[in-house]
Design brief:
The chain is an alpha/beta fold. The protein has 9 helices and 7 strands. The longest helix is centred in the N-terminal third of the chain and has 12 residues.
Length: 220
């Protein structure tokens, strides 16, 4: 844990989704395993990790494996993804404190939009799997590449008239926590790199554990 330098009151909190709000650490892998496409999906993922393809190319390759799948099947699968304990109360208490809450996810909009509705989130940005006549086309509109998340978060803050000194971020991946955010919380971090970049590290099944780190610090 690092000490947090003085900053303005927090006015926006941006959460990651997979592995931060939801218990599923990776919706792409979750879908592959449910749909029986993980053997090919694993190969595409390794190509991305090796730097052989971009995030957008990887996302398109992944979605091509699901072409022809019915939307209702995806909804059935994603509806079973659970939230961490206290997720709804965490969002509610932040909003009661006058703080806007957003989700920025490099996952898919089906899950992000459900979370937005269930948890009453102010803003959502994720990737949209394209559907025609209730069937997946095999294409995707990539709005959030994993490595672009820090810049996307900065643009969102600027679009509502805020600086990063008024923003707190919560996530499990290094890309979830821009270094110039006022408060950086690693929630069940996936690597040592994330822990070292964060101001606070929370390992827990209850998302409410992040609240004292944001509201008390932001109100000081």
């Amino acid at each position: 844990m690092k000490s947090v330098i003085s900053h303005q009151r927090i006015r926006l909190v941006i959460f990651d989704l997979d592995g931060t709000i939801t218990r599923s650490p990776n919706v792409w892998r979750h879908l592959h395993k449910e749909l029986g496409t993980w053997n090919s999906g694993r190969i595409f993922a390794q190509k991305y990790l090796n730097g052989e393809i971009s995030y957008r190319e990887w996302a398109q390759l992944d979605c091509s494996l699901w072409k022809g799948t019915r939307l209702e099947e995806l909804l059935r699968i994603t509806s079973r993804i659970e939230y961490y304990d206290g997720a709804a109360e965490t969002i509610e208490r932040l909003r009661e404190a006058g703080i806007r809450v957003g989700i920025v996810s490099a996952g898919i909009s089906l899950v992000a939009e459900r979370a937005g509705r269930d948890l009453n989130v102010d803003l959502i940005l994720s990737n949209e799997i394209l559907i025609e006549n209730g069937v997946l086309t095999g294409s995707i509109e990539t709005r959030v590449s994993l490595d672009e998340k820090p810049q996307i978060i900065k643009r969102i803050a600027a679009s509502i008239g805020l600086t990063m000194s008024e923003v707190a971020v919560v996530g499990d991946n290094i890309f979830d926590i821009p270094r110039d955010a006022a408060i950086k919380i690693a929630f069940n971090p996936t690597s040592k790199e994330v822990e070292e970049a964060a101001d606070f590290v929370v390992r827990d099944e209850d998302l409410r554990k992040v609240l004292p780190l944001i509201i008390s610090e932001g109100a000081s």
